[in-house]
Amino acid sequence: MFFNYIKIAWRNILRKKMFAFINVLGLAIGISTCFVMLLMIEFENGFDTQHSNGDRIYRLYTTFSGAFSGSNRGTASGAGPAIKESSTNVERVAQFFEVGGNKVTISQPDADPAIFREGLKAILADSSYFNMLPAYEWIVGDPSVSLSSINQVVLTATTFKKYFGDKASPQDMLGTTITYRDSIQTTLTGVVNEIPFRTDFRFTEFVSVATAKRFGVNLNDWRSTNSGSQTFVELMPGVKVEDFESQVSLLKEKYMAEHLDSDYEADFMLQPLSELHFNPELGIFNSVGDVANRSTLKILALVAVLILLIAAINYINLETAQATRRAKEIGIRKVLGSSRSTLVFQFLAESILLTSIATAFALPLCQFALIYFDEFLSPDMSLSLNDPATIGYLIALVLFVGTLAGMYPALVLSKFLPVKALKSQIYTEKGKNFSALLRRGLTIFQFTFSQILIACCLLMIWQVDFLTKRDLGFKKDEILVVGTPWRETAQKRERLAAELASIPEISAISLHDNPPSSNNWSSDLLKSYDESGNEVIHDVHIKRGQVDYFSFYEIDFLAGRPFLPNDSLKEVVINEKFARELGYETPNDAISEQVNWGTEKHTIVGVVNDFHNRSLHSEIDPLVLVYDEEGSDIGVKLNLEGGSHASADAVVDKVKAAWDEVYPNHPIRYEFLDESINKTYESDRRTVKLASTATLIAILISCLGLFGLVSFSTIQRTKEIGIRKVLGATVGNIVSLMSRDFLGLVLIASVVAAPIAYWLGLMWLEDFAYSVEPGVLLFLLTGAFALLIAFLTVAQQAFKAATDNPVKALRYE
Fold first, then answer.
1. Is the alpha carbon torsion for 355, 357, 360, 361 positive or negative?
2. What angle do helix axes 2-15 and 17-45 make, rounded to 10 degrees?
3. Which residue stretches of 165-280 are H helix?
4. Rounded to an integer, what distance in angstroms lies between the CA atom of residue 711 and that of residue 717?
5. Bridge partners of 191?
6. What is the rounded average pLDDT for all residues in the chain?
7. Which of 214, 663, 664, 691 is the most exposed place for a label (fewest CB within 10 A)?
8. Cβ neighbours of residue 682 closer than 8 Å, sequence gap 6 or more
9. Which of 43-57, 320-334, 714-728 has the weakest average pLDDT?
10. What is the four-CA torsion angle of 68, 69, 71, 74, rounded to 10 degrees?
């Protein structure tokens, strides 16, 4: 019986090739889009889900309130020992510290030292780390011994192969000296396999925590909070997190005892391991881990379902529209004894077969999508038909989509009475109206969704264009920022600056800590007094540089002058926002006034315009600029013909040559300032790319459905069109007649879509401190574009029908 269903379904598909093609194409696009998005969602939700004790593991993090507020994923290093001493509900505390560096030296007997210059993914840890995460498999060594003493290191298997080659034996290499930062010599005491499932714990080198002092880490410190200082706890089985939280709150007393003079408070919070991958505010770790956003994943899931739904709507619309063509088939089957359930299964078999064919075509589209969106995706994400889970997803998707698309047509077609079906009188007037109304409603839904995507996509494009073209208040073009090794001497830095200044294509040099806009910044608390003499605390951003910082970046002064090149004078320049925050009505009012910075008074000698010191996601911060003779960055202003980065290659080569003269043992680190700023909006560009693709897919599927309905309507009205032409109707009259109803549906969709798109657009723009305004023009353009593509879709078929010979039309049927 099953194969009979399939055989009949195949014959029906071949009998109506054009409509089958429309359905297959629409479903293939919808299924591939949905499947890729489901892969992305499943991938992100799969991090650290297979730890046997994962439901009992929590990360401790710090929140601040008072003079400044915010969260830090790290803790003071004293938090770990304090929990071990005072908590009774904890089975294990694992504290580790991320350490940086970009140079590792491998020393072996009878061989020259091998030097590796890559960013470290290393931590200071002890056995508690591996005991909490038992998924690590030890190849050689033992967690209780391998990290128990000073100057020990354990490597992952991949890192071991990178340092020693594929043929080296971990057992034979034990005892090898591995040197960090040129002077910290450690001994290889173990090798472990990486965690075999998806995880954010992707550290590659584990140095014994007893070596902390040599890396500049204080192990029992309450004075500072560093994001690289991580504290994880594993609760005892059966302990509720609420019971443990009361013990965590006691850490605040220890912290505040060391900060009695502070104007802020710190609280310690718990983050479940299952949430580690999903908190953009906290992030994951400094050197590893890419955070995902649950809200984004939910939006992806919604878009995936809706795209799949509009593809299924095409099938529903076309099948119900063609009901009269299958009336006699249904009547004959019922006369010959077919039950309604048999007919339902027959129609479902047809829709599932069609969906299976569409899925076969969707697979190469999925592979293309994974390549096209490679910048979104992890290299670990792939489509493998050897994976049972993938096969399971595909089968479930085929059954779900086939049933979703085929169920309503199956129920409608199978209920026809055999006598009326044989006479093609399948609908009552009420039923006919309902069927037509349903098709109109579904078409409106399709174009509503498409126009919401069009409007949101246009808004995103405008916003990203606004971000990249807005005047930031300083010069950013043709400026190269070269970062120097912070451990090296100031003399070397000045020597490099002198070398660079001698290059003819370089017009100016400036030493500073950071350019005007940067992802890296420092802040501090300054004090002033209001008119009543009350102390006011200000959380301000600090930038340090030499006197030429302002002229180099072309920052305008609203009042006063730059600070003098003498840090003993205690002069500062502030921005206009900080001047307003201090209560001064005009920039001139702030000149010669003083602010308290720590225990010293600093005199305001200048006020500059409010330039954007961070991305446009954030408001301009109150800012203090202070003189500093030793900057870690060197700003290099290029004098290029044409102003393109392509013509800067020769200058960059000269900069590299000068670098190699001064820092032969360090890789150069440089970036064009405008490119660095634009990278800040890379995630926004990726969002636009994703939204644009979803929009094009939704439009394409909707237009395919519209094309199918128009084609069927044209076939049904062939004789009517012929009569109208004989009676004198022009091509324009026919096209207008055929287009009117469908364009009316698109117009209704425009009205429905506008307020929804406006609300969604405002929600997205909330993430930006500075943004465009979604005005009337946005929705006029969206509606006009939707009407245009709908008209072109309808007009093509209508024009073809209108230009056919009316004699042929009158002979139709």
1. negative
2. 120
3. 170-173, 241-248, 251-257
4. 10
5. 140, 155
6. 84
7. 664
8. none
9. 320-334
10. 30
Q: Is the pLDDT of residue 678 over 80?
A: yes
**Strand 264-272 and strand 57-66: pairing?**
antiparallel
Question: For residue 621, is pLDDT > 50?
Answer: yes
Q: Which two tokens stand for residue 689?
A: 């790319």
How far, in Å, CA of 486 to CA of 445, rounded? 59
* Token pair 């980065």 in the structure block, residue: 645
Kindly state the tokens that stand for 31: 């299924």
Q: Supply 129's token pair.
A: 């780390």
Q: What is the pTM of this model?
A: 0.78
Cα–Cα–Cα angle for 597, 601, 602, rounded to 5 degrees: 85
CA dist., res. 742 & res. 321, Å (int): 14
Count of C-beta atoms within a 10 Å radius of residue 797:
22
For the ranges 435-444, 539-548, 638-647, which has the lowest average pLDDT?
A: 638-647
Per-residue model confidence as pLDDT tens digits over 295-328: 778 888 888 888 888 888 887 777 766 655 666 6
CA-CA distance, 565 to 575, in Å (whole number)?
19
Among 325, 379, 282, residue whose Cα is nearest residue 61? 282
Residue with tokens 């009350």: 534
Closest CA to 442 of 317, 320, 322, 355: 317
Residue 535 sits at φ, ψ, to 5 deg, of -75, 135
- Tens-place pLDDT, residues 448-494: 999 998 999 999 999 989 988 899 999 998 899 998 887 778 888 88
Instruction: Look up residue 616 and give its two tokens.
Output: 């446009």
* Two structure tokens written together for 728: 């004198």
Tokens 């670990």 locate to 380
- Joined tokens for residue 468: 């990249």
The token pair at 222 is: 């309450």
**Positive or negative CA dihedral for 201, 205, 208, 211?**
negative
